[in-house]
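FAQ: What does the model actually see?

It sees only this:
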Amino acid sequence: MDIKTASALHRLRLVSGPEAVSFLVLLVCSVLKRTTEFNAVPFMGAVHGFLFVVYLVFWLDAWNKAKWDLKTGVLFFVLSVVPFGGFYADRKLKRAADDAVIASRARHEGTVDA
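And it is asked to produce this:
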C-alpha cells in the first residue's frame, strides 16, 4: 500500500466514528419521539443521512485504492449499517492505515521490497 491508500483508509476512519455516533443518537431520538414529546428525528435524520453518504463515498474510494476483495468491502459496508459497527470499523481501519504507512516508509527508505 502507498500513502494514497493510507489516506483513503484514514478518511474512511475519520467519518466512521461520527457516523456510528449519529446512528446511535438517531435511534435514541426515535425512541424518545415515540415515548415523549421530544422530536429531534428530522434533524438527526438529516445529520446521519449526510454522514452516511460521506461514509459511502469514502468507502468506495478506500475499496478502490486498497484493492479490497469482495468480502472486505462488504464487511465495511455492513459495519456502517449495524449499531456500534462504525466503532469496530474504526479500529480495523486504524490498524490497516498504520500498516500502510509503515510499509510505505520502509519502501521509501529502501529497507523492504514490498
